[in-house]
Amino acid sequence: MSASWRWLVRARLPEPRRHRLGNWQALPEPDVESAHSVARLVVVDVESSGLNVYRDRLIAVGAIAIRESRMALGESFRAVLRQEKASDDENILVHRIGGTAQTEGEDPADALLRFLEFAGKSPLLGFHAPFDEIMLRKSMRAYLGENFRRAWLDLAWLAPAILPEEGRRLRTLDDWCAAFGVENARRHDALADAIATGQVFQVLQHHALRIGLRSIGDLIAAARGQEWLARHRN
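User: That's the sequence. What structure does it adopt?
Assistant: C-alpha cells below.
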C-alpha cells in the first residue's frame, strides 16, 4: 500500500480514532540499551485464516506484558477481529474461533487501536515473529493507514543463540516449551500462545544474563546474529 493510500485511509478515520492513533504515534521510542531485566516487554501472537502472509487475513491477536522479568497477568490483551466471511472449517479446527465469533467480532480498527494502546512503544517479542509482524502490519495499513514498523525480538532465533546445544535439537515453540516445562493446554489460542512464549522468554532471560546479554539491544543483536549464521551456513 502506497504512502498516499495510507494517508487516505487515515484521513477517513473518524476523529476519535485519528486522535487515538496520533496519541500512540507521539509516544517515545523505547531505549533498547536499557536492561531487559527491568524493561516492559510485550509478547505477541496472532491467529490468521491461513499461513500465506499475502493472501490470508488476521483473525485474532493475543498479547501479554512482561515487567521486570515477571509475567504481568493483569496486563494482557485479546481481540477477535470481525470478518466479512469466516475462515474455512479446517482453519477453524486449528484456532477454534468459530464462524459466528469471527463474523461478530470486534471492529478491526477499534481492535487494532486497542492493541496499540496496550502495547505502547514497548519492544515486541514473538516466536517466528516475522509472521506476526507482517499480519499486523497488513491490517494496520488496511484499517488505520498506519505503517506499523517496530523492532521485534524473535525467540525462534534468540533461543538457539543463547542455548546453542539445545538449539541443535529444539526447533518449534512446542519443543522449547517441553524442554522448559511450560504447559499450554490451549495451543493456537493467541493469548495462551503469547503466555507460553513469554514463559519461554523468562527462562531465556536468566541464561542471557549468565552469558552477559544484559540489554534489549543485546538480545536483538544475538537473535539477528543467529539468523544470519543460519542463513549463511554451508
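The longest strand covers residues 70-80.
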